[in-house]
């Protein structure tokens, strides 16, 4: 559990973060969004004390971070920045091993952890362990950067625009990979982005900042249905709101009994994806299949619209 209490930061007369408070539950992904200069990155850096707050405090599992030695705190918190910050003259294995080595892990334990993480991130150890960052694609560098941040098994991972340098196709895959790994490891994540689509895709809760202030802290559905201020409503998008709502619900929730012709849609697909497939294929309904491919029902345009109306 992370408790952010009344954090403030100013540089001269410029207030960068203004009395921000919110709580992050264990195993949650919280995304901090807002326009450039809203204070997002400064807020993130105050959590691991890369920036010292002028007022307020951060508690991790009830412990004030100012009572934890800085080196110990930063070893306990993984940190990923845009560009990944990999050491160019160290191999992939050496980059991932950075924090465990500083913590005095023995060589066998470090080697096992490096191999475990490379496997987890689908980077074959035999192929990638001895490569250097310049020999990797952008997506591969991003995975190594996250692996390095997770090497010492931190309970908290901070990510500052981690996918900003990736092209849209690789970016979507990187986001899905992060979700899969987070669900497997249960790591608590606080992630900064300016991309609302990314926020809705990743966040259990979203903190909207503007002008150094926290305007709203809520679930994606709450932001869409009950934006607290005009700026929040503008940020989530008036036209896109119905489709973003549909992206938060899976086919399982709107599935109907019966059958339909055509290529099946998976039960885990979002209603937004299902509606897109129905429109693209020009069908009023399509079959739904479970993870094994077995048919278990159907999804229809009318069913999606009926299900969507209460959300709005």
Automatic annotation (TrEMBL):
Keywords: ATP-binding, Nucleotide-binding, Transport. One of its GO terms (molecular function) is ATP binding. The keyword ATP-binding applies. It holds the Pfam family ABC_tran. SMART domains: AAA. PROSITE patterns: ABC_TRANSPORTER_1 (PS00211), ABC_TRANSPORTER_2 (PS50893). Residues 2-236 form the ABC transporter domain. Gene3D superfamilies: P-loop containing nucleotide triphosphate hydrolases. The keyword Lyase does not apply. PANTHER family: OSMOPROTECTANT IMPORT ATP-BINDING PROTEIN OSMV. Belongs to the ABC transporter superfamily. This is ABC transporter ATP-binding protein. It comes from Microvirga terrestris. The lineage of its organism: Bacteria, Pseudomonadati, Pseudomonadota, Alphaproteobacteria, Hyphomicrobiales.
């Amino acid at each position: 559990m992370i408790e952010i209490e009344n954090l403030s930061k100013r540089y001269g007369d410029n207030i960068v973060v203004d009395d921000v408070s919110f709580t992050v539950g264990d195993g949650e992904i919280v995304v901090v969004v807002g326009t450039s200069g809203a204070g997002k990155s400064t807020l993130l850096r105050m959590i691991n004390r890369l920036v010292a707050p002028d007022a307020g405090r951060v508690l991790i599992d009830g412990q004030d971070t100012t009572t934890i030695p800085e080196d110990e705190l930063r070893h306990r918190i993984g940190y990923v920045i845009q560009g990944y910050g990999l050491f160019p003259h160290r191999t992939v294995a050496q980059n991932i091993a950075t924090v465990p080595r500083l913590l005095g892990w023995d060589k066998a334990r470090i080697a096992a952890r490096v191999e475990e993480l490379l496997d987890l991130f689908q980077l074959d150890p035999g192929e990638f362990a001895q490569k250097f960052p310049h020999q990797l694609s952008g997506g591969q560098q991003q995975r190594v950067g996250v692996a390095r941040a997770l090497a010492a098994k931190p309970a908290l991972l901070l990510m500052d625009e981690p996918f900003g340098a990736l092209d849209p196709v690789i970016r979507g895959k990187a986001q899905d990979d992060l979700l899969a790994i987070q669900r497997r490891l249960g790591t608590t994540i606080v992630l900064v982005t300016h991309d609302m689509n990314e926020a809705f895709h990743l966040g259990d809760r979203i903190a909207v900042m503007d002008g150094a202030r926290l305007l709203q802290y809520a679930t994606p559905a709450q932001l869409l249905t009950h934006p607290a201020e005009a700026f929040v409503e503008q940020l989530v998008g008036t036209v896109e709101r119905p489709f973003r709502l549909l992206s938060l619900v899976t086919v399982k929730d709107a599935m109907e009994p019966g059958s339909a012709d055509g290529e099946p849609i998976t039960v885990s697909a979002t209603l937004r994806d299902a509606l897109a497939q129905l429109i693209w294929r020009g069908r009023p309904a399509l079959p739904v299949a479970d993870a094994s491919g077995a048919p278990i029902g159907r999804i229809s345009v009318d069913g999606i619209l009926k299900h969507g109306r209460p959300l709005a």
